[in-house]
Amino acid sequence: MSITKDQIIDAVAELSVMEVVELIEAMEEKFGVSAAAVAAGPAAAGEAAAEQTEFNLVLTAFGENKVKAIKAVRGITGLGLKEAKEAVESCPAVLKEGIAKEEAEAFKKELEEIGATAELK
Predict the structure, then answer these.
(1) How far apart are CA 18 and CA 91, in angstroms?
(2) DSSP string, 46-101
(3) Percentage of residues in the chain with pLDDT exceeding 90?
(4) Calpha distance 105→52 (Å, rounded)
(5) Closest C-alpha among 75, 60, 62 to residue 118
(6) H or E stretch covering 115
(7) Which residues partner with 96 through β-bridges?
(8) Is 19 helix (H, G, I), strand (E, B) or coil?
(9) pLDDT digits 0-9 by tens, 10-64
(10) Neighbours of 33 (CB within 10 A)
(11) How many CA atoms lie within 13 A of 95 on its CB side?
């Protein structure tokens, strides 16, 4: 009996965010690939460079106070305690994807105020 694509999709849909992150990392390692988007080549001459409108908030280090970092991550992401702790401990971790610049900068500032470091990608 083989597993169908639909069964795999259903199983992945039941995973937590952190479990999906761990699954992706394991698949990257197993198959020697990266889930990162391939960078586009330089824009052709005459084309205006489009300004980035959506950002990913990445926690790069939690600083000296892990508890404050976990609380901040929970507030920003809405994750449960366990998932937020796993995200903090697995730095760098993408906390939010595809968010507006203003929102991303506000979250970044919130993290930096507690001693954590974050970046926008």
Answers:
(1) 12
(2) TPPPPPP-EEEEEEEE-TT-HHHHHHHHHHHH---HHHHHHHHHT-SEEEEEEEEH
(3) 2
(4) 13
(5) 60
(6) none
(7) 57
(8) helix
(9) 888 888 888 888 888 888 888 888 766 555 555 554 455 567 888 888 888 888 8
(10) 9
(11) 37
